[in-house]
Amino acid sequence: MSRPGAPTVLVVGGAGYIGSHMLAALLDAGYGVVTLDDLSRGHREFVLDGAFVQGGCGDAPTLDRLFAEHRIDAVMHFAAWALVGESVARPLDYYRNNVGATAVLLDRMLAHGVKTFIFSSTCAVYGEPERVPIDEDHPTRPTNPYGTTKLAAERMLADAARAHGLAFASLRYFNAAGAHPERPLGERHDPETHLIPLVLQVAAGKRERIAVLGADYPTRDGTCVRDYVHVCDLAQAHLLALERLLAGQPGGIYNLGSSRGYTVREVIELARTVTGHPIPSTDAPRRPGDPAVLVASPGKARRELGWQPRFAALETIVETAWAWHRREAGA
User: Fold this and answer.
1) Domain for residue 217, yes or no?
2) Residue in 126, 146, 173, 217 annotated catalytic
3) Is 146 a catalytic residue?
């Protein structure tokens, strides 16, 4: 139930993994919410409350009707496609969805007088890092179309800010993981490409083994190093960024992560401990476009947003994800 006089937020992609957790955080904070999702990759049951409109963010007539029917104070955009390998195989589709549709969304929201925008971005904009941990001043040289399209959208936001007074924050997160500890929300993709849910699917008996994509990287055990951040902590950072913009303070770009990296083999071993299952693994070729190491420097988000992750430990992240997978399996 929204609190009287609370702003109303349009959550684009609110039926997806991160968007649905954002929706839950907004509801818990008393905001009014409207969800827009075409359900091509989201799940209607993840939209816990508030108005729901089925449609894409590149659909101008749908957007015009939505903005005319609802008093929207801010937009949060989670509707990008985010599969690295798919982006390499289908780059034009990624430009169409991640850049073209975002341009339509910005055009229509500005036409209706909405000038507050929170963008779900990614560490993929950095590419192969020159230094670790990665701060916001690190050069942006993405190595795959997914990262390139996200960076293009960020530059579009900056141009819209200069031309039209758009207030925006872009949150570049590292590896989103985990599940809501209290709500029926978790990570459900088809196909699934993220490491933690794939590993837990092995533990749940849905897969025979986990494929380690690349064992010849220049890391401590030859596998990729990634920084994991709990999805509820991501949602909290978005909420803090929204409150900052609504208070009239400047936005910006923020990295969201833990500043600690784990190899693929370390994640698998931790999952074995959490689940009590052996989780067989096998080595496989590298995935195209994957950098060896991605670890965040989240100091700016902590300083400017006051962001304090509640679920920082990787063990906690895996435990919440495992609880979700067990509920999904009816265990």
Assistant:
1) yes
2) 146
3) yes
pLDDT at 4: 73
CB 289 within 8 A of CB 88: yes
pLDDT, averaged across the chain: 95
pTM for the model stands at 0.95
Contact criterion met (CB below 8 Å) for 217 and 264: no
Measured CA to CA in angstroms, residue 217 lies from 84, 263, 288, 290 at distances of 18, 10, 13, 10
Element holding 276 (H helix, E strand): none
Q: Which helix (H) or strand (E) holds 53?
A: strand 51-54
Q: What is the pLDDT of residues 166-182, one digit of tens each?
A: 999 999 999 999 999 99
The whole-angstrom separation of Cα 10 and Cα 52 is 10
Residue 15 lies in a domain: yes
Domain boundaries, position 253? 8-176+229-257
Q: Is the pLDDT of residue 330 over 80?
A: no
Same domain flag for 139 and 24: yes
Four-CA torsion 271, 281, 215, 173, nearest 10 degrees: -40
Q: Do 213 and 153 fall into the same domain?
A: no
Q: Quick check: is 35 in a domain?
A: yes
